[in-house]
Amino acid sequence: MRREFKLPDVGEGLTEAEIVRWHVKAGDTVKVNQIVVEIETAKSIVELPIPWDGVVAGLMAEEGDTIDVGVTIIAVDTTEEGGAPAAPSASGVPSGAETPAQASRDLAALADDMVPKPPAEGAVEPGAHGSPAPKEERQAVLVGYGVKTGTTKRRPRKQPSRGIAANPVANPSRVEVDGPPSTPSTSSADAGAAGAGVAAAPGAGPAESGTAEPGATRTDPGRVAVLAKPPVRKLAKDLGVDLASLTGTGPQGSITRDDVHAAAQAPAEEPALTTSPRREERIPIKGVRKATAQAMVTSAFTAPHVTEFLQVDMTGTMEAVRRLRTMADFAEVKVSPLLLVTKAVLTAVRRHPLINSAWDEQSGEIVVKHYVNLGIAAATPRGLLVPNIKDAQALSLPALATALAQLTETARAGRTQPAEMSGGTITITNVGVFGVDTGTPIINPGEAAILAVGQIRDLPWVVDGELAVRKVATLSLSFDHRIVDGELGSLFLADVGAMLEDPLRMLAWS
User: Fold this and answer.
1) Cβ count within 10 A of residue 122
2) Phi and psi of 391, rounded to 5°?
3) Top-ranked range on mean pLDDT: pick from 21-25, 96-100, 381-385, 390-394
């Protein structure tokens, strides 16, 4: 029995995900709960297990494709009681699935380029003069692609030229493009196959016939249809490769990514006299960048931002960090100034609870959180991630140091899960690691404040009426002015700064 595994919603409100890497291929045997694919959703990479035993019948999406939730991504022939995979139905596809007629397993990977079942011999195209009504109520869909209400969009079939009664396709994997109105189209068949019959209207000329090259079929002068999936077509367009000039090496003569890359890297027959550098580049907006953009736009145009700044003498903090590193409790963890900044924020939240709240527009309420899910902005190769430490207010200083280290390591490895990035209540972003003094951070949606910490550097500072060189950093606090007024924001920022100048205050105020 063939089963179709659809892309699930693995996060809160997930609508689409990108296929990052397949762990299986067609023909592989899979077991229940075996990881078959990695997807990128929102800001994390998630591994998806398969829920059945069986044999992979086909992959319905390529690496790099963006797929809607609910769309089939893999088909599996599950084992029956006898232990063998279920035999295919008479049509060669699973019963109940609406598919083009008699497609081979190799065509499963080309599902996006397949056309609906051609009309039977002697039949005429629905809508043509004298044509009988179609037998089915709606058009069959591709292998593994069920109709999804409201989201599945399929381009309408092009109408045949006037006077053409039928144009059966000898090979269903061939995709042909109709010519201009009143121009007979040409149908190509595999070597040794009979040419397609075309019934012309009175006055119409005879149909032309020709032999198709692998990977392409010519319909009329100047128009060529090729076998290539949409991602391959886009790649060819980006690299400036003419698909019609390539010979496909994929199934049924289809053109693959390797064919396009090979053509792009091949030396030109007539090198240009001058070579100009590429002046523009287009980067797809997806994955982390897309999720970050949506969140930042939502926050910037919803919450009225106010940002305050404070320079802080961090000399006491740096001395405390040095001493903590020598203690046995911190021998297995990294101790950095960020650890004490985190502890200062948690202590200041205890003193000013309203800073740790959210604006509920729908209910007309301010929701004060009496727990702290502390977000830490982390720069990763895939973009900005903001995982959070759950119930950070309940952790001891060594446990907080361990949680910070694990959070950063997981984020940089790209293994942060959606649950680890949801439910944040307040955030810290350490822009000082990039060598800058400060910034005006944007609040994460659903929170009321975010603290940015700049680089710590030597600056002249007045100490006891005398000029001295001290370790100085700049703090900047952005807050939602609907919830936090100037007084509350200033008091919170001043408390954080006071604890960093004299870490002993963290004990006094805890």
Assistant:
1) 8
2) 50, 50
3) 390-394
Q: Residue 490: count other Cβ atoms within 10 Å of its Cβ.
A: 15
User: Which of 420, 422, 391, 427 minimizes the C-alpha distance to 406?
Assistant: 420
Q: How confident is the model over 307-328, as pLDDT tens digits?
A: 999 999 999 999 999 999 999 9
**Residue 424: Cβ-neighbour burial (10 angstroms; 0-12, 13-18, 19+):** buried
The CA angle 374-378-383, to the nearest 5 degrees, is: 135
- CA dist 219 and 216 (Å) reads 10
Residue of 261, 305, 352, 481 marked active site = 481
Helix extents (H) in 133-256: 230-239
261 classed as catalytic: no
Query: Which among 63-67, 90-94, 471-475 has the top mean pLDDT?
Result: 471-475
| Full-model pTM | 0.55
Cα separations (Å) of 393 from 159, 373, 424, 449, 501? Answer: 67, 8, 13, 16, 21
Cβ atoms of residues 142 and 175 within 8 Å = no
Kindly tell me the burial class for residue 32, based on how many C-beta atoms sit within 10 Å of its own C-beta (0-12, 13-18, 19 or more).
exposed
Largest Cα separation within the chain, whole Å, is 106
Minimum mean pLDDT range among 142-151, 217-226, 370-379, 462-471: 142-151
